[in-house]
Amino acid sequence: MERNVYxxxxxxxxxxxxxxxxxxxxxxxxxxxxxxxxxDRITSKAVYAKKSAPDFYASAMDGVAVKAQKTNYASExxxxxxxxxxxxxxxDTGDSIPQEFNAVIKIEEIEQISEKEIEVIKxxxxxxxxxxxxxxxxxxxxxxxxxxxxDVFEIGAMLEAGVTEVEVYQKPKVGIIASGxxxxxxxxxxxxxxxxxxxxxxxxLSAQNWGSQVINYGIVKDDYEKIxxxxxxxxxxxxxxxxxxxxxxxxxxxxxxxxxxxxxVLVHGIEIMPGKPLIVAVVNGKxxxxxxxxxxxxxxxxxxxxxxxxxxxxxxxYDLPTKLKAKVKKKIPSTxxxxxxxxxxxxxxxxxxxxSPQKRGSASMHSLIxxxxxxPIKESKEGIFSGDLTDVYILKPKNKIKNNLMxxxxxxxxxxxxxxxxxxNEEKFELNIQAVGSMSGLVxxxxxxxxxxxxxxxxxxxxxxxxSYINDLFRNEKMAVINLVLREQGLMVKNNNPKNLxxxxxxxxxxxxxINRQRGSGTRVLLDYxxxxxxxxxxxxxxxxxEELTHMGAAVQVEEGTADAALGIRAAASAxxxxxxxxxxxxxxxxxxxxxxxxxxxxxxxEIIKSQPFKNAVKELKGYDLKNSGEINIIE
Length: 636
Known about the structure:
Layout: H1 12-22, E1 30-34, E2 47-48, E3 58-59, E4 63-66, E5 80-83, E6 88-91, E7 103-106, E8 110-112, E9 117-120, E10 130-131, E11 142-144, H2 152-160, E12 165-169, E13 173-179, E14 183-184, E15 195-196, H3 199-209, E16 213-220, H4 224-237, E17 240-244, H5 255-262, E18 264-268, E19 272-273, E20 279-283, E21 286-291, H6 295-313, E22 323-328, E23 332-333, E24 339-349, E25 352-357, H7 365-370, E26 373-377, E27 383-384, E28 389-394, H8 398-402, E29 405-409, H9 413-424, E30 431-435, H10 438-447, E31 452-455, H11 467-473, E32 479-493, E33 514-517, H12 522-533, E34 547-548, H13 551-560, E35 565-569, H14 570-575, E36 579-593, H15 600-610, H16 612-619, E37 624-625, E38 632-635
Helix pairs in contact: 3-6, 4-5, 9-16
């Protein structure tokens, strides 16, 4: 099949307007349901009280109901004696007031003389401590207007007013189809070349949270007629149909052609990134939306288009997430003409909220899990520059974001244990990490993007770690170095070492495929040192230019067989169950400015690093020495 082109590409705002304007008058069916089961439903007509509440005069407290005029001249010097049945009756809170009485005296304000007589020493006004008829709600009073989202308060008010059934809109019915011959369900045994379909589950749960009924039609292979058949069925039985993948311009992207055949395509392609390959169409008067297959693109488009559409169908306004202003400390490039949404981490440094961009791309789900916010870059700009203040839509509570600690630099599995321990302790802060390599971490610390940098940079001349790099970068600044762990570095190789590798020298063998770490990483610095020490030429190593960002990423490449060897830590090799040839023990340190040591969060972080629970957790991994963990070295 020929490749498609983007036929009706539009800006984000224009595409949203086209969709919402076209379906603003879409009529959902209504139904009557039990009031007690109506939470989160939307009223389809106004709700009026069927009875007053209370519908009788009720005592507001425990006491005695009296005739107020009988107490007019009561005082301590001349108390009034009242007789039960004639002048008063005992009542509890909520009791009906007998018709002949018109006030209530608190039980603690009377003096009991006998079972039938009491003494009153203070006069009370008429209707004192009595709830009037209709004090809470009056019969036929409006309780809830039409198109109101019902919460527990509304349910309570309706039940009090005698409304036991309420008329609501039926939940919009949403049909979801996942297309792709490479897709399999999460429960399947995954084979090479297959991908788990988790998009449909994420979108299904999101749509349910927004007030929809969802039918998941499962996975449909890349077959024109099969996809078409499923779209026809979903369109017939639902208010809204979603097709995941197939909305782009590839040879097997059939969604566009099918929707052109079945109905009218309103939009094909939006000027945002990620999320460009979106389709908005009408089939039989109902909306059909083609969502891109990359997970982050799918989630973004689903939030930008499906959420407001579902809200609109229910007669509700779409509320944008909370927005904060944050400063960036380095240039974030962007493509002019495309509105880009960048995932960021946020932390407060010296009373400024700082945004640090995460790994970009449409398939990095992990980056979304760890993101604190989404930063939009306008299509009219070619990026954001260092020092710019920009809007960020936050994904987590504001108070939690401001308490974040940010660590940028080299990743280590012990950091994961540290993060987990912080969560277990229910600390008042969280530790976020961006794995970019040791040198980049130090540069980020210098720029003010983070409070902490993780590094293991070898100084070849002295054999020490990190100090000379800190001195070069942070001249005239007082710095602190906290040791996290000592760890083993070596060659990670496939089980049983099929290439019979024994050390660095063997990397130059013709039949050995190597995978490297990125420039600026401590492991890359160590490799270059080892090559120089052994007079080896990097050009003789197949794969020297191939890069991975983490030890675990490199270990997985070896496990999968795309590389025969990688330089990395024993813990990573152990985690994926491959063999390890030890070469050197190295220091992994956390670097920070000395003044930051006074931050209560940092003090607590150091305590956790020194704690036995953290050390026990790291000991479960392999290749670590914790004898110096938590030790602080001051560099002045």
